[in-house]
Write a structure and sequence with these properties.
By secondary structure, this protein is α/β, with parallel strands linked by helices. It has four domains: 15-367, 3-Layer(aba) Sandwich (Rossmann fold), CATH 3.40.50.12780; 405-461, Luciferase, domain 3; 465-553, GMP Synthetase, Chain A, domain 3 (2-Layer Sandwich), CATH 3.30.300; 558-626, ANL, C-terminal domain (GMP Synthetase, Chain A, domain 3), CATH 3.30.300.30. 30% of the residues lie in helices and 27% in strands. Strands 12-13-14-15-16-21-20-19-17-18 form a ten-stranded mixed β-sheet, with helices on both faces. Helix 3 (35-45) packs antiparallel against helix 4 (69-85).
Length: 628
């Protein structure tokens, strides 16, 4: 082992603090060759400290099972030995369909110690799961058994039947479905392994791949972003600095592990910074019992960090704190999708702690920006760049060549470069459009960087729809709709949603003389779209699809139309007393898109407040024009 961690809990107010921190290279901040070595270093410094508290499913206020850091290491060693015993070889992957539970954490670190981990969203359709597992070269599968979830076991069965490369399947809660040969019960098999050490190679290098994370892509053709030891170790330091982590911290783990939010942001980063994770439910924050008891859990376990995606924060605003003592909280953290400014302000006012909004991507390991924890929050900004990454706003031509760097506060394409950036997708055909010649990763987001280094996202240059932090490729929807014999053109965009951030909707232009209802087309889409979350919530048949001068579908016009429809419906009740209200959405040089609400009639103060109340939960900015 190469030493111990430096102190990451230093002042973070301005960009100068970031520059001072990164004067010490990441390899000195976290002086280890791989994640497993770093984890062992954390355990050696905190052997008896609680690492995980797992609460019983269905009763989050009941006492949970406590696992110390030394016990955690033992389970990780057992998982690694189990994988090696099953024949896991170099370049092969442990694919996990497990829900949020201690075994998923053991799998994460155990697989990274001796191979590659690949967690997949178990809510995807079986064909999509199979496509990802094949692309990841999966030879071991972690699954949920029939007794715990018949639906999830059915999906695992589909993968087993169609993936002959599998050497072993380990089943959480396994029973009759286990054959004792290839398919085995997870917990007994884990317990039978050596916990004292890993009986195999653990001297993996900084640039060896330890994780594959799926991000977008059409059904059966997932984009897999690889994570290396170097990427994740750098994140331990940079996010540790951004959040000011120490061994005194405790957080509720409620984000899915198939996403970097659960595996890295509220997984490896706090674990390797010696924080305690409370696993409240296998469903995470999707469990209404967890949200309903959140403030009581903060009091019971002395939670110090209020962390979650914007949809979860919106739900918490409906849960009164009551007599719960939440004085242990020191800060909040959110990301995954744009957070509405009004939600951030409300949760900050409600809890008395600043919400630190950050920004990152699967392809850059985790957060690359964050609001300074010791500074005044600038709501609407995703903060300042974190250490060890360059972020710029640049102008790109049609071939993704940089034609110039933007001035301060000028909207352009956000690009990133640094040791946290992936070496390239597993499927190399995606890389040409992902990077510039100079090695900058093209985020696909538009934004501006102000004179103080704060980054303000204003929209997207790419078509990705982000629903509750999950990426949806619109091509999944469009390809299916184009298969219908009556459809001439189809386009999918995200419409604003006060809870999920965005929800997919579709616009269709029919062939001449074709007759079909929107409901019939929606039914067709549901039957053929493998990713359930990608099913369009609304489908609009229009006479003529808006096109650019070169004949491409002009999606900004569709996004604006979808936003007008949503906001118009939200404001409809305000018109009942004679108030006239109209909504227009247009491009804006600072905010990207801006909704202009023109109103007249009634009490101006009351109507203005009502409009703000209705539209405040949305991420799109709005302004009110009063005409008297």
């Amino acid at each position: 082992m190469a030493g111990s961690f430096r102190n990451f809990n230093t002042s973070f107010v301005t960009l100068a603090d970031v520059e001072e921190f990164e004067k010490t290279p990441a390899v000195e901040r976290v002086p280890y060759q791989n994640i497993y070595e770093a984890f062992v270093g954390t355990v050696q410094a905190n052997p008896d400290k609680e690492a995980i508290v797992a609460l019983p499913p269905g009763d989050p206020m009941a006492d949970g099972v406590s696992i110390s850091f030394s016990q955690f290491l033992g389970r990780v060693n057992q998982a690694a030995n189990m994988f090696l015993g099953a024949g896991l070889s170099e370049g092969e992957t442990v694919t996990s369909l497990l829900p949020l539970c201690p075994q998923a954490m053991f799998t994460l670190l155990g697989a990274e110690a001796v191979g590659i981990v690949n967690s997949i969203n178990p809510l995807l359709e079986p064909e999509h799961i199979l496509g990802i597992a094949k692309a990841a070269n999966a030879t071991i599968l972690m699954a949920t058994g029939q007794a715990l979830s018949p639906e999830l076991w059915a999906k695992a069965t589909y993968v087993i039947e169609h993936l002959p490369s599998l050497k072993a399947v380990y089943v959480l809660g396994g029973g009759a479905e286990c054959d004792g040969q290839k398919i085995k019960p997870l917990d007994p098999e884990l317990a039978a392994q050596d916990a004292s050490k890993i009986n195999g190679r653990t001297d993996r290098g900084l640039d060896e791949i330890v994780g594959y994370y799926h991000t977008g892509g059409t059904t059966g053709v997932p984009k897999l972003a690889p994570h290396t030891n170097r990427m994740q170790l750098a994140q331990i330091a940079s996010s540790g600095f951004g959040m000011g982590y120490s061994s005194a911290d405790k957080a509720i783990a409620g984000l899915p592990m198939f996403h970097i939010s659960g595996s890295i942001v509220v997984g490896l980063v706090p674990i390797l910074n010696a924080a305690t994770l409370v696993i409240a439910s296998p469903m995470g924050f999707r469990d209404p019992l967890v949200i309903g008891n959140y403030w009581r859990l903060v009091e019971k376990y002395g939670i110090t960090i209020l962390g979650g995606v914007p949809t979860m924060l919106s739900a918490l605003l409906n849960m009164p704190i009551g007599d719960s003592d939440i004085s242990s909280l020191r800060c909040g953290m959110t990301g995954g999708s744009a957070a509405p400014v009004e939600v951030l302000k409300a949760i900050t006012k409600m809890t008395g702690v600043n919400m630190l909004e950050g920004y990152g991507m699967t392809e850059v390991t985790s957060f690359t920006t964050m609001q300074p924890q010791n500074g005044e929050p600038r709501f609407g900004s995703v903060g300042i760049r974190l250490p060890y990454v360059e972020i710029a706003a640049v102008h790109l031509d049609a071939d993704n060549n940089i034609t110039g760097f933007a001035e301060a506060d000028e909207i352009a394409n956000i690009v990133m470069r640094g040791i946290c950036v992936m070496p390239g997708y597993v499927q190399t055909e995606f890389n040409q459009k992902a990077f510039t010649e100079e090695g900058w990763l093209i985020s696909g987001d538009l934004g501006r960087i102000d004179k103080d280094g704060f980054i303000w996202l204003t929209g997207r240059a790419k078509d990705l729809i982000i629903r509750s932090g999950h990426n949806i490729d619109p091509a999944i929807i469009e390809e299916v709709l184009h298969e219908h014999p009556m459809v001439e053109l189809a386009a999918a965009v995200g419409r604003p949603d006060s809870y999920a951030g965005e929800i997919p909707v579709a616009y269709v232009q029919l062939k001449p003389d074709a007759k079909i209802t929107p409901e019939e087309l929606q039914d067709f889409a549901r039957q053929h779209i493998a990713e359930r979350a990608a099913n369009p919530s609304n489908l609009y048949i229009i006479d003529v699809m808006p096109l650019t001068g070169v004949g491409k579908i002009f999606k900004p016009a569709l996004r604006h139309d979808a936003a007008v429809k949503v906001f118009d419906a939200e404001l409809a009740p305000l018109r009942e007393n004679g108030t006239e209200i109209s909504v227009a959405v247009e491009n804006h040089p600072v905010h990207g898109s801006l909704a202009t609400v023109t109103a007249s009639g009634g009490d101006e103060g009351v109507i203005r407040a009502a409009i703000t109340d209705k539209l405040g939960p949305y991420t799109m900015r709005h302004e009110i024009v009063w005409q008297g």
